[in-house]
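One chain given next:
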Amino acid sequence: MRVRLQTEPFDAAAEVAALTGGRTDVGAVVTFTGICRASEGGEPVTAMTLEHYPGMAEAEIARHVEEAERRWPLLGVRVIHRYGRLVPGEPIVLVVTASAHRHDAFAAAEFLMDYLKTRAPFWKREERPDGARWVEAKAADDDAAARWSAPAPPRRDAAAE
C-alpha cells in the first residue's frame, strides 16, 4: 500500500526495507520524517491534533503520488500520515521515494511534502499553555508549492544517465 493514514507511530527503517528489500534496480532512496515540535513561532506547543476526512484524504494523497510517478521515474513511493493527538517528539508524516537516481528521488519527495503541507485535507489544532487554536496556512508553504504548478516536464530517461 503506497498511502496510509493511521494513529499509531510508524517505523521509517521498516518502511524503507519493505520498499527496497531484494531489489537491485533502486539506486536512491529519500526519506522525510516530519516530527511534532515543542514550539511554533517561539511559543510553546504541548500537543497537536490532526483531523482528516477519511476516504477523501487517502484518495487525494494517492492522486498526488500518481502525479509524482508521472513526473519522475520512481521505483517506489510510501506516504504515511498520522492523525489524532500527537505530542512533541512524535513522528507525524513519512515520505519515502525510491528511484534509480538521487535527483528523481529528492525531487519527488519535495513535491509530495509541499503538497502535504499545503493541499492535503488535514486540519491541525495546536494545544498551548494558554489554550488551543486551529493552525492557519502559511504563505511560505504556498510559495514553496507554487513551483510545482507548471505542467510536468517530460520524464527523464534514467537509463541514459
About this structure: Residues 99 and 155 are 12 Å apart (CA to CA). The chain has one domain: 3-19+26-134.
